[in-house]
Amino acid sequence: MPKVIGNIEIFMGPHQLGGPDNLQDVIVNFIDGAQKRLLIAVQELDSQPIAEAIIRAKQRKVLVKLVLEADYLLEKIARANPFLTGGANEVNRVLHDAILRASINVHSDYNQDIFHQKFMVRDSKSVLTGSTNFTVSDTSANLNHVVIVHDETVARNYDQEYDEIQQGHFGKLNEGHDPKPAEVMVSNVRVKTLFAPDHNPEMEIMKQIAKAKRRVDFAIFTFASSSGIDDQLVLAKQAGISIRGALFKSQANQTWSATETLKNAGLSLFFIPRSGLPEPSPRKLHHKLMVIDEQLII
Question: Are β-strands 296-297 and 288-292 bridged in parallel, bridged antiparallel, or unpaired?
Fold first, then answer.
Protein backbone atom coordinates (compact mmCIF):
# COMPACT_ATOMS: atom_id res chain seq x y z
CA MET A 1 0.00 0.00 0.00
CA PRO A 2 1.27 3.50 -0.79
CA LYS A 3 2.08 6.12 1.80
CA VAL A 4 -0.64 8.73 1.31
CA ILE A 5 -0.63 12.26 2.71
CA GLY A 6 -3.73 13.92 1.33
CA ASN A 7 -2.99 14.59 -2.34
CA ILE A 8 0.49 13.04 -2.26
CA GLU A 9 1.04 9.32 -2.84
CA ILE A 10 4.40 7.52 -2.56
CA PHE A 11 4.84 3.99 -3.91
CA MET A 12 7.83 1.67 -3.36
CA GLY A 13 8.53 -1.48 -5.29
CA PRO A 14 8.55 -3.69 -7.10
CA HIS A 15 6.20 -6.09 -5.36
CA GLN A 16 8.01 -9.00 -7.05
CA LEU A 17 10.94 -8.28 -4.71
CA GLY A 18 8.81 -7.87 -1.61
CA GLY A 19 8.06 -4.18 -2.04
CA PRO A 20 4.64 -2.95 -0.91
CA ASP A 21 3.45 -1.71 -4.31
CA ASN A 22 2.91 -2.98 -7.85
CA LEU A 23 4.64 -0.21 -9.81
CA GLN A 24 3.32 -1.31 -13.20
CA ASP A 25 -0.27 -1.18 -11.93
CA VAL A 26 0.35 2.27 -10.42
CA ILE A 27 1.51 3.61 -13.79
CA VAL A 28 -1.27 1.88 -15.76
CA ASN A 29 -3.97 3.08 -13.36
CA PHE A 30 -2.68 6.65 -13.57
CA ILE A 31 -2.89 6.52 -17.38
CA ASP A 32 -6.34 4.91 -17.28
CA GLY A 33 -7.55 7.82 -15.15
CA ALA A 34 -6.82 10.39 -17.86
CA GLN A 35 -9.93 12.09 -19.22
CA LYS A 36 -8.73 14.95 -21.43
CA ARG A 37 -4.93 15.18 -21.77
CA LEU A 38 -1.88 13.04 -21.03
CA LEU A 39 1.70 14.30 -21.45
CA ILE A 40 4.36 11.58 -21.13
CA ALA A 41 8.11 12.13 -20.92
CA VAL A 42 10.05 8.93 -20.24
CA GLN A 43 13.45 7.53 -21.05
CA GLU A 44 12.33 4.07 -22.13
CA LEU A 45 9.11 2.18 -22.82
CA ASP A 46 9.16 -1.61 -23.26
CA SER A 47 6.22 -2.60 -21.03
CA GLN A 48 3.30 -3.77 -23.15
CA PRO A 49 0.66 -3.22 -20.43
CA ILE A 50 1.80 0.42 -20.12
CA ALA A 51 1.82 0.84 -23.91
CA GLU A 52 -1.67 -0.65 -24.07
CA ALA A 53 -2.87 1.82 -21.42
CA ILE A 54 -1.44 4.71 -23.47
CA ILE A 55 -3.27 3.46 -26.56
CA ARG A 56 -6.51 3.03 -24.57
CA ALA A 57 -6.25 6.66 -23.53
CA LYS A 58 -6.00 7.74 -27.15
CA GLN A 59 -8.94 5.52 -28.11
CA ARG A 60 -11.17 7.21 -25.56
CA LYS A 61 -10.32 10.59 -27.12
CA VAL A 62 -7.66 11.72 -24.64
CA LEU A 63 -5.04 14.03 -26.18
CA VAL A 64 -1.83 12.01 -25.76
CA LYS A 65 1.72 13.24 -26.35
CA LEU A 66 4.84 11.17 -25.76
CA VAL A 67 8.59 11.85 -25.70
CA LEU A 68 11.11 8.98 -25.61
CA GLU A 69 14.89 8.52 -25.78
CA ALA A 70 15.76 7.35 -29.30
CA ASP A 71 18.67 5.13 -28.23
CA TYR A 72 16.23 2.43 -27.14
CA LEU A 73 14.70 2.34 -30.62
CA LEU A 74 18.02 1.89 -32.44
CA GLU A 75 20.40 -1.02 -32.94
CA LYS A 76 24.00 -0.26 -31.98
CA ILE A 77 25.21 -2.32 -34.94
CA ALA A 78 23.24 -2.21 -38.18
CA ARG A 79 21.56 -5.50 -39.02
CA ALA A 80 22.53 -7.12 -42.32
CA ASN A 81 18.87 -7.22 -43.33
CA PRO A 82 17.05 -4.41 -41.52
CA PHE A 83 13.73 -5.59 -42.95
CA LEU A 84 13.82 -8.65 -40.70
CA THR A 85 12.41 -8.24 -37.21
CA GLY A 86 14.52 -8.93 -34.15
CA GLY A 87 17.40 -7.39 -32.28
CA ALA A 88 18.06 -6.17 -28.77
CA ASN A 89 15.49 -3.35 -28.85
CA GLU A 90 12.78 -5.03 -30.88
CA VAL A 91 10.19 -4.87 -28.10
CA ASN A 92 10.69 -1.10 -27.87
CA ARG A 93 10.23 -0.75 -31.62
CA VAL A 94 7.13 -2.95 -31.70
CA LEU A 95 5.45 -0.88 -28.98
CA HIS A 96 6.63 2.36 -30.58
CA ASP A 97 5.10 1.29 -33.91
CA ALA A 98 1.83 0.30 -32.23
CA ILE A 99 1.65 3.73 -30.58
CA LEU A 100 2.30 5.40 -33.94
CA ARG A 101 -0.39 3.27 -35.57
CA ALA A 102 -2.77 4.51 -32.88
CA SER A 103 -2.07 8.03 -34.22
CA ILE A 104 -0.35 9.21 -31.05
CA ASN A 105 2.05 12.14 -31.16
CA VAL A 106 5.52 10.66 -30.46
CA HIS A 107 8.86 12.47 -30.47
CA SER A 108 12.31 11.22 -29.58
CA ASP A 109 15.95 12.17 -29.14
CA TYR A 110 15.68 15.80 -28.11
CA ASN A 111 18.97 15.45 -26.23
CA GLN A 112 22.19 14.50 -27.98
CA ASP A 113 23.27 12.58 -24.88
CA ILE A 114 20.34 10.90 -23.17
CA PHE A 115 16.76 11.89 -22.43
CA HIS A 116 16.31 10.92 -18.80
CA GLN A 117 12.94 12.29 -17.66
CA LYS A 118 10.33 10.06 -16.04
CA PHE A 119 7.05 11.94 -15.61
CA MET A 120 3.46 12.21 -16.78
CA VAL A 121 0.99 15.07 -16.45
CA ARG A 122 -2.67 14.08 -16.38
CA ASP A 123 -5.43 16.54 -17.21
CA SER A 124 -3.26 19.44 -15.93
CA LYS A 125 -4.19 18.34 -12.42
CA SER A 126 -1.93 15.42 -11.46
CA VAL A 127 1.72 14.46 -11.91
CA LEU A 128 3.35 11.03 -11.76
CA THR A 129 7.12 11.00 -11.43
CA GLY A 130 9.93 9.13 -9.66
CA SER A 131 12.78 6.82 -10.62
CA THR A 132 10.80 4.28 -12.63
CA ASN A 133 11.11 3.90 -16.38
CA PHE A 134 8.16 2.32 -18.18
CA THR A 135 9.98 -0.98 -18.61
CA VAL A 136 9.53 -4.56 -17.50
CA SER A 137 12.82 -4.50 -15.58
CA ASP A 138 12.10 -1.23 -13.79
CA THR A 139 8.63 -2.32 -12.69
CA SER A 140 9.52 -5.91 -11.76
CA ALA A 141 13.26 -6.40 -11.14
CA ASN A 142 14.84 -3.05 -10.14
CA LEU A 143 14.29 -1.20 -6.86
CA ASN A 144 12.30 1.94 -7.72
CA HIS A 145 9.71 4.40 -6.51
CA VAL A 146 6.81 6.37 -7.95
CA VAL A 147 5.39 9.64 -6.59
CA ILE A 148 1.98 11.04 -7.54
CA VAL A 149 0.99 14.60 -6.67
CA HIS A 150 -2.55 15.83 -7.29
CA ASP A 151 -2.18 19.60 -7.47
CA GLU A 152 -2.86 22.04 -10.30
CA THR A 153 0.09 24.32 -9.49
CA VAL A 154 2.56 21.43 -9.48
CA ALA A 155 0.97 20.07 -12.66
CA ARG A 156 1.34 23.49 -14.29
CA ASN A 157 5.09 23.41 -13.58
CA TYR A 158 5.38 20.07 -15.34
CA ASP A 159 3.16 21.27 -18.20
CA GLN A 160 5.60 24.13 -18.79
CA GLU A 161 8.58 21.79 -18.64
CA TYR A 162 6.94 19.51 -21.20
CA ASP A 163 6.40 22.47 -23.52
CA GLU A 164 10.10 23.32 -23.23
CA ILE A 165 11.06 19.72 -23.99
CA GLN A 166 8.99 19.76 -27.15
CA GLN A 167 10.65 23.02 -28.17
CA GLY A 168 14.12 21.59 -27.48
CA HIS A 169 14.85 24.17 -24.76
CA PHE A 170 16.80 22.08 -22.28
CA GLY A 171 20.24 20.62 -21.64
CA LYS A 172 22.89 21.87 -24.05
CA LEU A 173 20.09 23.14 -26.27
CA ASN A 174 18.62 25.30 -23.52
CA GLU A 175 17.99 28.86 -24.69
CA GLY A 176 17.38 30.53 -21.35
CA HIS A 177 16.96 29.99 -17.66
CA ASP A 178 13.53 29.85 -16.11
CA PRO A 179 12.76 31.13 -12.65
CA LYS A 180 12.37 28.41 -10.06
CA PRO A 181 8.77 27.26 -9.64
CA ALA A 182 7.35 28.62 -6.44
CA GLU A 183 7.18 26.38 -3.40
CA VAL A 184 3.57 25.30 -2.88
CA MET A 185 1.65 23.67 -0.05
CA VAL A 186 0.01 20.36 -0.97
CA SER A 187 -2.00 18.79 1.84
CA ASN A 188 0.08 20.80 4.35
CA VAL A 189 3.32 19.50 2.84
CA ARG A 190 5.83 21.95 1.34
CA VAL A 191 6.53 20.90 -2.25
CA LYS A 192 9.27 22.38 -4.41
CA THR A 193 9.83 21.32 -8.03
CA LEU A 194 13.20 21.82 -9.72
CA PHE A 195 14.29 20.83 -13.22
CA ALA A 196 17.84 20.37 -14.44
CA PRO A 197 19.71 22.28 -15.63
CA ASP A 198 17.67 25.48 -15.26
CA HIS A 199 17.10 25.26 -11.52
CA ASN A 200 20.48 23.80 -10.52
CA PRO A 201 19.06 21.00 -8.34
CA GLU A 202 22.58 20.02 -7.26
CA MET A 203 22.83 23.20 -5.19
CA GLU A 204 19.40 22.60 -3.68
CA ILE A 205 20.41 19.08 -2.62
CA MET A 206 23.63 20.42 -1.07
CA LYS A 207 21.70 23.14 0.75
CA GLN A 208 19.26 20.66 2.24
CA ILE A 209 22.07 18.33 3.36
CA ALA A 210 23.72 21.32 5.05
CA LYS A 211 20.49 21.84 7.04
CA ALA A 212 20.48 18.26 8.38
CA LYS A 213 20.33 18.03 12.15
CA ARG A 214 20.59 14.28 12.77
CA ARG A 215 20.71 11.98 9.76
CA VAL A 216 20.78 11.64 5.98
CA ASP A 217 19.77 8.44 4.18
CA PHE A 218 20.09 8.02 0.44
CA ALA A 219 19.58 5.37 -2.25
CA ILE A 220 21.06 6.20 -5.64
CA PHE A 221 21.69 4.43 -8.94
CA THR A 222 24.60 6.67 -9.98
CA PHE A 223 26.72 8.87 -7.71
CA ALA A 224 29.55 10.73 -9.46
CA SER A 225 32.63 11.97 -7.64
CA SER A 226 33.17 15.73 -7.18
CA SER A 227 29.52 16.47 -7.80
CA GLY A 228 29.48 18.77 -4.81
CA ILE A 229 26.92 16.49 -3.20
CA ASP A 230 29.64 14.04 -2.12
CA ASP A 231 31.65 16.88 -0.58
CA GLN A 232 28.58 18.12 1.31
CA LEU A 233 27.91 14.63 2.68
CA VAL A 234 31.51 14.41 3.90
CA LEU A 235 31.12 17.77 5.66
CA ALA A 236 27.88 16.57 7.23
CA LYS A 237 29.59 13.40 8.47
CA GLN A 238 32.40 15.49 9.96
CA ALA A 239 29.74 17.57 11.75
CA GLY A 240 28.39 14.45 13.44
CA ILE A 241 25.44 13.73 11.15
CA SER A 242 24.60 10.02 10.75
CA ILE A 243 24.73 9.13 7.04
CA ARG A 244 23.72 5.88 5.35
CA GLY A 245 23.82 5.27 1.62
CA ALA A 246 22.66 2.47 -0.68
CA LEU A 247 24.31 2.32 -4.11
CA PHE A 248 24.08 0.17 -7.24
CA LYS A 249 27.25 -1.91 -7.09
CA SER A 250 28.41 -1.83 -10.72
CA GLN A 251 28.00 1.95 -10.94
CA ALA A 252 29.65 2.42 -7.55
CA ASN A 253 32.70 0.51 -8.78
CA GLN A 254 33.35 2.90 -11.67
CA THR A 255 36.48 5.06 -11.52
CA TRP A 256 34.40 8.23 -11.74
CA SER A 257 32.12 7.33 -8.84
CA ALA A 258 32.12 8.98 -5.41
CA THR A 259 32.45 5.65 -3.60
CA GLU A 260 36.05 5.99 -2.41
CA THR A 261 35.47 9.56 -1.23
CA LEU A 262 32.47 8.43 0.81
CA LYS A 263 34.21 5.33 2.16
CA ASN A 264 37.27 7.30 3.24
CA ALA A 265 35.03 9.71 5.14
CA GLY A 266 33.53 6.81 7.08
CA LEU A 267 30.02 6.88 5.64
CA SER A 268 27.95 3.73 6.07
CA LEU A 269 27.42 2.28 2.57
CA PHE A 270 25.37 -0.68 1.33
CA PHE A 271 25.70 -2.10 -2.19
CA ILE A 272 23.05 -3.72 -4.39
CA PRO A 273 23.20 -6.45 -5.64
CA ARG A 274 24.89 -8.10 -2.67
CA SER A 275 25.60 -11.72 -1.89
CA GLY A 276 23.55 -13.20 0.91
CA LEU A 277 20.36 -11.33 0.06
CA PRO A 278 17.24 -13.53 -0.01
CA GLU A 279 15.86 -14.59 -3.37
CA PRO A 280 14.48 -13.05 -5.46
CA SER A 281 17.13 -10.35 -5.14
CA PRO A 282 17.19 -6.99 -6.97
CA ARG A 283 18.70 -6.77 -10.43
CA LYS A 284 19.54 -3.09 -9.86
CA LEU A 285 19.07 -0.39 -7.29
CA HIS A 286 17.56 2.32 -9.49
CA HIS A 287 16.34 4.88 -6.92
CA LYS A 288 17.22 8.57 -6.99
CA LEU A 289 16.19 9.24 -3.43
CA MET A 290 17.34 11.04 -0.27
CA VAL A 291 15.65 11.43 3.13
CA ILE A 292 16.86 14.07 5.59
CA ASP A 293 16.01 13.90 9.31
CA GLU A 294 13.05 11.66 8.46
CA GLN A 295 11.17 14.82 7.43
CA LEU A 296 12.36 15.84 3.96
CA ILE A 297 12.31 13.70 0.80
CA ILE A 298 14.33 14.59 -2.29
Answer: antiparallel
